[in-house]
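Repro:
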Amino acid sequence: MIKVVRGNPTPEELAAALAVVQARAAAAATTPPGATQERPAWSDPSRVAQRRLPPPGPRSWARTFWPC
C-alpha cells in the first residue's frame, strides 16, 4: 500500500510514481536472489598485483606504478 504523506499529487503524477515502483518491483522479481553481476577482468585488482615490483634502489618509487 502506498500513502501520500505530504503534498497533493495530480492523478498523472501519482500514476507515474506507481509505474516506476511497479517497474522496479518487476525487475527485482526477475533477478534470482544472491545473484551477483560479474565484474569485468580489466577492473580486477588482482590483475595489477600479479606484476613484480622493480628492485629497490634510486628512483625505484618512480617505477612502482609503471613497470618497465
